[in-house]
Design goal:
With 297 residues, the protein is α/β, with parallel strands linked by helices. The protein has 12 helices and 12 strands. The chain has a 5-stranded mixed sheet with strand order 4-3-5-12-6, covered by helices on one side. A 3-stranded antiparallel sheet has the order 10-7-11. Strands 1-2 form a two-stranded antiparallel sheet. The longest helix is centred in the first third of the chain and has 21 residues, at 65-85.
């Protein structure tokens, strides 16, 4: 209780900025204060918590174990205070000129964002939408800092500590060009394994995916002759060569150059989810954006 009695909101805001930036100068810029003022407040915080909180490091300041413990509870408390004192306002998307920032892979762009784009332009004609490539190592931090509003991601490898809503389950289909010289109907396992396959390897250079895992459990192996980092290239490669691919069904659409078959083995699909940070959860504008994407699918 003695710590709480000696605390004021400005000190908590300063601590939050310092734990975000790990740098006194950048924290001062974020708070619109002078660097000496922030240094003085850091000294007060160190006395209150009886801990150095931030220590000099090779690339800025490093948080102590106590500072790491404080980071999330402090951020949550500040967000709740902000919501408590902010007037609840109705969000009107038809009048908003907000810039929304979302992160998605090229699959997410095709399966979620592209189908929703026309409706988004009608529902929010003055708003702008910026789409960023997903960077798994950084996206959680960007959501935390408010640099990204939403993340569209498959069920695997989702950053922890985020709000999440399932959008749909995806399944795989075997795809080739129309007029493929040997693929005329749903293939058997032997024919499937003799076909020349292209696969998407998001990290680049991989020739082993979920289909290969299922085959290997049966003691079988297919012929993967091309590995690419993006789905868009796969669609073009299928339309112009005799390669085939196991693709998510929503990605294929109604492409007249392609034909779709049931694969001769059961390959587990995946879940597509929408994720956001707690800091945005109760914001009326953000709630509208999330509801829009759910209804657009």
């Amino acid at each position: 209780m003695s710590n709480f009695a000696n605390m004021d909101l400005n000190l908590l805001l300063t601590l939050d900025a310092l734990l975000t930036e790990h740098n006194v100068t950048r924290a001062a810029q974020r708070l619109h204060l002078s660097q000496p003022s922030v240094s003085v407040q850091l000294a007060k915080l160190r006395d209150i918590f009886n801990d150095p909180l931030l220590l000099p490091g090779p690339r800025g300041m490093l948080p102590t174990a106590r500072a790491d413990e404080l980071r999330q509870p402090l951020r949550d408390a500040i967000e709740l205070l902000r919501l408590a004192v902010s007037p609840v306002s109705h969000f009107d998307p038809t009048k908003s000129d907000k810039i929304w920032r979302v992160s998605a892979s090229d699959y997410g762009e095709s399966a979620v964002l592209l189908p929703a784009l026309k409706g988004f332009r009608i529902a929010a004609p003055f708003a702008r939408l910026a789409i960023f490539e997903t960077q798994p190592a950084k996206v959680g931090r960007k959501l935390e800092l408010g640099e990204i509003d939403l993340l569209f991601h498959t069920g695997d490898g989702i950053p922890g500590g985020l709000r999440r809503r399932k959008l749909f389950d995806e399944t795989y289909r075997l795809v080739s060009r129309v007029g493929h010289p040997t693929l005329k109907k749903n293939p058997g396992l032997d024919e499937f394994n003799q076909l020349e396959h292209v696969m998407v390897s998001p990290d680049g250079g991989g020739f082993y995916g979920i289909t290969d895992k299922v085959l290997s459990e049966c003691g079988l192996k297919r012929k993967v002759v091309l590995s690419v980092p993006h789905f868009l290239f796969v669609l073009s490669a299928l339309a112009t060569t005799d390669l085939v691919a196991m693709l998510p069904a929503r990605l294929i659409g109604n492409n007249p150059a392609l034909q779709i078959f049931e694969p001769p083995l059961e390959v587990p699909g995946f879940e597509m989810a929408m994720l956001w940070h707690e800091r945005s959860h109760r914001d009326p504008a953000h709630q509208w954006l999330r509801d829009f994407f759910v209804s657009a699918l």
